[in-house]
Amino acid sequence: MHDFCFTIPYGLLLVCGGFVGYTSKGSTASLGGGVGTGLLLILAGYLSLKAFGKGKNSYLALILETGKPITIRV
Fold it and tell me: Is 61 exposed, middle or buried (0-12, 13-18, 19+ CB in 10 A)?
């Protein structure tokens, strides 16, 4: 099974979870974390799917899927 088979649905699940957390509790951290992470995974899955269609690898998608998350300190 290919990576985009998991990253796109999981990204959609994270986006939905971020919206649910925001609407039920008003948590902007849930909105930012869920939607931000979900959109990055959807982007990675899309890039991987397009590269698969061309018979190539997408190293940017690989980095987005497995890279260390960036921590922002305030």
Answer: buried
